[in-house]
Amino acid sequence: MEFPSPLVPATLVRRYKRFLADVVLPSGEPTTVHVANPGAMTGLAAPGSRVLLSRSANAARKLPLSWELVEVDLGCGRELVGINTANPNALVAEALREHRIPELREYRSVRREVGYGRNCRVDFLLEAPGRAPCYLEIKNVHLMRQRALAEFPDCVTARGAKHLDELAGVVAAGARAILLFVIQIGSAARFSLARDIDHAYAAAFDRARAHGVEAFAWRCQLSEHAIAITAPVAIAG
């Protein structure tokens, strides 16, 4: 996934109200930018960090700049980490078109945001002749508290736990269900649940796995020009 225009560098002043951040542009001009991330962003929002921003093509938008990447050292040296939680769905859509994920190559029909269960929508519904439908749920990952170990979630997510129970239900009904963790940290070598952050989500994950919901984790390669899903990462625990 290439960024449609060159990203704008800036220095982070503060992140606040979850969806806002104040930055200083190279010209010295202070401005407020949109943060497409409702999570805690642990280790990613230190004042003084170098950040990279995308510019919206919509001239009427109140905040034309959005925070995309931050340069940090999470234990493996300085690297770019993606913080925009809207990007993983676009990254997976690209990977599906290019048949990059072996476990999903046989599906030919891809539909997005399909309703199922009790007022839920699945990120992708994959279908192919002679195969059970596959419900594919995407989770963005950008938490790393130990060197090379990516974790999810970075805050309590009651909605995420509900979706896991709904995915277990579709497996019981004869479909396939997959939870795909997209890690926007290139140095990630392993993935684990952050059980200490959300005990209820961890319990729902264990229930879902016991009922046949599959789980995979893939890391991304990130640059100032593009992000791409590139390699699978082992899930611990």
Textual characterization of the structure:
The chain has a nine-stranded mixed sheet with strand order 7-8-9-12-14-15-13-11-10. The protein is α+β, with helices and mostly antiparallel strands and 237 residues long. Strand 5 and strand 6 (78-82) form a beta hairpin. It has helices at residues 87-97, 158-172, 199-210, and strands spanning 8-16, 20-24, 30-34, 50-55, 65-73, 78-82, 109-116, 120-127, 134-141, 143-146, 149-152, 176-183, 190-193, 214-222, 227-235. The model has no long low-confidence stretch (mean pLDDT 95). The longest helix is centred in the C-terminal third of the chain and has 15 residues, at 158-172. It has three helices and 15 strands. The radius of gyration is 18 Å and the shape is globular. Helix 2 (158-172) packs parallel to helix 3 (199-210).
Describe what is shown at a glance.
By secondary structure, the chain is of the alpha+beta class. The chain contains three helices and 15 strands.
